[in-house]
Amino acid sequence: MRPEPRPGDTVTGLVDAVIAVAGAFTAQGDSLVGDLGLTASRWLLLGALQDGPATIAAVARRRGLRRQSARESMDRLERAGLVARSPNPADARAPLFTLTAAGLGALTAVEPRRARWAEDLESQLDPAALATTLAFLTTLRQRLRDG
Hints:
- By secondary structure, the chain is mainly alpha-helical.
- It has a single domain (36-146), classed as Orthogonal Bundle (Arc Repressor Mutant, subunit A).
- The protein is 67% helix and 5% strand.
- A two-stranded antiparallel sheet has the order 1-2.
- It is globular and about 60 Å long.
């Protein structure tokens, strides 16, 4: 016999499910870009720079990462020649990072793979449920940010 659900059990189940899905997305991303010398994490950081220069703090906020984790990955990307660091006129302690030509090339190489993968997965899912899930997770993320 199953115990009666307690207040908070549904949210706890949601947390477990989201963490498991995030892990599966990371594994899929790793296999999608591994032969290009990238990981899903580094690919996400490169993508966060597509719209222009950003600080590590801004990239970490955008991607939901800890600053330390973003900094370590950004340092690796810089050593690999995929991003470049430059002074930040607004804050000398927080350099700006931009994509190099090689970084942009890596993202360009990934894009057709990402598009095929996303289209294939989306074709296997209920469109209405997918749209509802996206709206719900967007709202949930905002609530969690707002405290």
